[in-house]
Amino acid sequence: MDKNVWITREPIEINDVIAKVVRPEAGAVNTFIGTVREFTKGKRTLYLEYQAYVSMAEKKLAEICDEIDQRWDNTETAIAHRVGRLEITDIAVVIAVSTPHRKDAFAASRYAIERIKEMVPIWKKEHWEDGDLWIGDQKQEKSYENRIPVKGEMENG
């Protein structure tokens, strides 16, 4: 893979994401690994289903990398997000950020995951023991009830 951001249906190889950012001038590489948890708000999740408007999602992920470059000096960022059915403990997202110093690497990594939730058109459907629901945007501020959004809603995601 020659790009630093990608959406995939395959399990994410953590070391592939890290390899995109390792470089001699970086004294810190911070990784964030988001996994599927079993309980959310007291409700037992059986599995998740992620869907994305892939071309737009990758464009937005690249924008996040550009934002990080503008906010912190001498950074390199890579982000991979998985779509499809994910079981409990599966890896949903991996973010790797390298910087000369650890403080910036930590801050940029946190910034990346928060921006992903704010602006990247990726949606999840939670499957529980007693039903399922498209959650909507990742900040869970907009629900799509029992459907994924239509293209126009995705572009405004």
Strand count, sense and barrel status of the largest sheet are: 5 strands, antiparallel
Number of domain modules: 1
Global mean pLDDT? 90
In DSSP terms (H or I, runs of 4 or more residues), the helix count works out at 4
Query: What is the number of beta strands?
Result: 9
**What is the percentage of strand-forming residues?**
35-45%
Give the class-level CATH name.
Alpha Beta
Give the SSE string.
EHEEEHEEEHEEH
Radius of gyration: 16 Å
In terms of per-residue confidence, which ranges show pLDDT below 50 for 5 or more consecutive residues? none
Q: CATH superfamily, called what?
A: Molybdopterin biosynthesis MoaE subunit
The amount of helix comes to: 25-40%
Quickly give the CATH architecture.
Alpha-Beta Complex
Task: Outline the structure in words.
The chain has 157 residues and is of the alpha+beta class. It has one domain: Aldehyde Oxidoreductase, domain 3, CATH 3.90.1170.40. The protein has four helices and nine strands.
Short description:
This protein is of the alpha+beta class and 157 residues long.
Brief descriptors of the model:
alpha+beta, 4 helices, 157 residues, 5-stranded antiparallel sheet, 36% strand, 4-stranded mixed sheet, Aldehyde Oxidoreductase, domain 3
